[in-house]
Amino acid sequence: MGIQKYVFYSIHNCDKHPEVPLMEIRYCTEKFLKDSGLTHIIIRLCGFMQGLIGQYAVPILEEKSVWGTDAPTRIAYVDTQDIARLTFIALRNENISGKILTFADPRAWTTQEVITLCERLAGQDANVATVPVSVLRFTRQLIRFFEWTNDVADRLAFSEVFTSDTVFSVPMTQDI
């Protein structure tokens, strides 16, 4: 097919969370690429800044409820424009082939910190519905017994990540 270099976007720490189906699939794909012989770059990402707009900023401005958790997990959100720029820089560097890069903002945020920032920028308080992570875990355990709710149970598997007290960020010290 004439592919010169394959770029695969993965998830930071996917190798540490095989209990989350999406993360397991990403890690398996990473291993497949390494073994395939294809010239490739794997770029691990933490979170997308643009996702916060629809999830928190817009509902706060429209005086609708926003959902959060009590989890201490911190995520470094990156602007998709910055991801695109860094990807093009990495593609031009031949020394990067076969490597795993992680793109992350220097600051990682909890859900509550994101909501507080959006409230401050909007100049109004949010109607926050906080769901304890334990409720998410229990719900996942309950609904995974039904075939028609497997997709929902897979999404709720991220509750395992939330309870891990992980920081989804890394210092970007790699030379690209």
Instruction: Report, as a whole number of angstroms, the end-to-end distance.
Output: 27 Å
Number of helices, counting only DSSP H or I runs of 4 residues or more: 7
Q: State the low-pLDDT regions, or none.
A: none
Question: How do the strands line up in the largest sheet?
Answer: 1-2-7
- The CATH superfamily name is NAD(P)-binding Rossmann-like Domain
Main beta-sheet strand count, sense and barrel state: 3 strands, parallel
Instruction: Work out the strand percent.
Output: 15-25%
The SSE order reads: EHEEHEEEHEHEHHHE
Rounded Rg:
18 Å
**Name given to the CATH architecture:** 3-Layer(aba) Sandwich
Can you tell me the number of structural domains?
1
Shape: globular
Level of helix content? 40-55%
Number of β-strand runs: 9
Mean pLDDT over the full residue set: 85
The CATH C-level name is: Alpha Beta
Notable characteristics:
single chain; 176 residues; alpha/beta; Rossmann fold; 3-stranded parallel beta sheet; two-stranded parallel ribbon; 19% strand; globular
Describe this structure in words.
There is one protein chain. α1 links the parallel β1 and β2 (40-45). The strands form 4 sheets. This protein has a 3-stranded parallel sheet, with helices on both faces. The chain has a two-stranded parallel sheet with strand order 3-6. The protein has a two-stranded parallel ribbon with strand order 4-8. It has one domain (6-168): Rossmann fold (3-Layer(aba) Sandwich). It is an alpha/beta fold and 176 residues long. The mean pLDDT is 85. It contains 7 helices and 9 strands.
